[in-house]
Amino acid sequence: MKRKKLLIISHTEHYTDASVAICGWGPTVHEINYLAEYWEEVVHVACYHTQSPPPSSVAYAKSNIKYVPIPAYGGSSFIKKIGILQKMPGIIRTVKRQLAGATEVQLRTPTAMGLFLLPLFTWFWKRDYIFWVKYAGDWEQEKPPRSNGWQRWFLQQKWVDYPVTINGFWPHQAPQCFSFENPCLTEEHLSKGQEVAIAKQFTPPFVLTFVGRIDHVKGVNRILDAVATVPSHLIKALHIIGDGPNRKFCELQANELKLPIYFHGYLDRREVHDYLAQSHFFLLPSTNEGFPKVIAEAACYGAIPVVSNVSSIKHYLTDTNGYVWDTKGVVSFTEVLQKAVMANTNDLKEKSLKVQQLATLFTFANYYRKLRTLVFKESV
Question: Shortest CA distance to 119 belongs to which of 109, 128, 165, 143?
């Protein structure tokens, strides 16, 4: 029997595409499409932007999903950041209206509206529904933005009497905080991924792939610095998928290297998976993360992660199933990548098969099972 109504509140960016359909950020929309199988109605309250959608946006695939817009907020300047104060009453009214008839409610944080919605849900609004908070940010970040830091602190306090799902497994984790994996894979993905991983051969030249924002946090510049030191005969291609403020600078840097480096911009999920299936290594020398879903997607196809040890990434990846760069250590990312591409073929194959097994944790089916047992308190 299906549940009645799921209400999701997030700051996920939504747009209207050329076919006049509402679309939103792909990873979130795919997750909601899956959850819609288990509810009669799913309502997503999230931000609406008037510009054209980026290629990473996709439309909802289920007719029982309803999108309810709230105004976009935030920006780089102080004036834009505090602009949410003007929009706050309207956001509160919209959320309150959509609570009617909800049987389950999820608030996705960190987000600026969490600053006022968390207190309202905690102390002021009657909860005749199952309520939980998803904190998708870095639970360990030493100096988070003030808004994120306050929300993380709030969610760890004794007055929080609802489940909070977080990335990773942490010492002294508050009893209401449950470790969850970010879902991104279907059973079909796992089946195909296993076939790809078993067949993949780790003889050079290698295909390397990065997926994400092209900015100083994600570290595309570190990747380019590193590949510049690798013997050219070891690299068949470096695919950089995504966009961001540093793209032009990185393209200029890549042009100077005279290596087969390709900037693809944003691609849809199917195209991303196609590139990951071709890849021997997945590169992400980021300095700040929660747990990026794309690591699990790369693992699904046996692409060996060469990644940083930030946040919960180190809880899933070790020297047995990848190459992990200690951002605070004396060994550079360049040295880590050199070690990876010069490793023994058999060792690489073993890491590939082990990391493919890790992908099983990141299925939508596993996510829903954990929701039922840890959030909804059902026996499965």
Answer: 109
Cβ–Cβ under 8 Å, residues 102 and 126? no
Give the pair of three-digit tokens for residue 15. 């747009």
Both tokens of 268, joined, read 């849809």
pTM of the entire predicted model:
0.91
Q: Which two tokens stand for residue 264?
A: 């693809």
Question: Distances in Å between the alpha carbon of 25 and those of 36, 138, 370?
Answer: 17, 20, 24
The answer to whether 3 and 104 have CB atoms below 8 angstroms apart is: yes
Question: Residue 18 corresponds to which tokens in the numbers above?
Answer: 């050329």
Nearest CA to 357 out of 307, 296, 313, 277 is that of 296
Residues 6+ away with beta carbon under 8 Å from 213: 242, 243, 244
Residue ranges with strand state E in 129-260: 130-135, 164-166, 177-179, 206-211, 235-241
Q: Is-contact 285 313, C-beta < 8 A?
A: no
Which residues are CB-neighbours of 300 under 8 A, at least 6 positions away?
A: 185, 189, 190, 193, 197, 273, 276, 356, 359, 362
pLDDT on residue 77: 62
Q: For residues 315 and 204, is the Cβ–Cβ distance under 8 A?
A: no
Spatial separation of the C-alpha atoms in residues 208 and 259, rounded to whole Å: 12
pLDDT of residue 76: 61
Per-block average pLDDT, block size 10, for the chain (380 residues)? 95 92 93 96 97 90 96 73 84 97 98 96 96 94 90 97 96 95 95 97 97 94 96 96 94 94 93 97 92 95 96 93 95 97 97 96 96 92
Selection from 261, 254, 281 nearest residue 342 by Cα: 281
Q: Cis link prior to 205 (omega < 30° from 0)? A: yes
User: In this predicted structure, what is the pLDDT of residue 79?
Assistant: 67
Supply the pLDDT for residue 218.
94
Burial class (CB in 10 A: 0-12, 13-18, 19+), 273: buried
Strands (E) located in 29-186: 39-48, 57-59, 65-71, 104-109, 130-135, 164-166, 177-179
Task: Give the total residue count for the chain.
Answer: 380
Phi-psi region of 219 (alpha: psi -120 to 50; beta: other; left: phi over 0): left
Q: Give the chain's end-to-end CA distance (angstroms, integer).
A: 14
What residue type is 68 in one-letter code? V
